[in-house]
Amino acid sequence: MEIQAAQAADFAPDATTLRATIESPRGGAFAIVADRPLHVRLVARSTSGAASEPSVSVGPLVREPMVAEAIRDGIVTDLALAEAAVTRTKLAIGAVDADRLAIGTGNLIPDPSFGGPYAEHLVADAPPWRIDTPGRASERCLTVEVTAAEPATQNQRLTVLPVLPGDHLYLAVDYRTSPDWDGSAASVVLEWLGPDGTTLGRGALHGPPGARTEWSRISGQLQAPDTAVKAAVALESASATRGSVSFDNAEARTVVIAGSVLARSIGTLELAAESITGEKAAAHTITGREIQFQTLTGDHLDVESARVALLAAGVVTADMLSADALNGKTISGGVIETAGTGQRTRLVPALSFDIASTYGKLIRPPGIEFRSSNPDEKSPGYLVSYSDADLGGTVTELSTPDIGAGTANIQMIAGESTYRGPSLTGAAGTAVT
Question: Highest taxon of the source (predicted)?
Answer without folding.
Answer: Bacteria
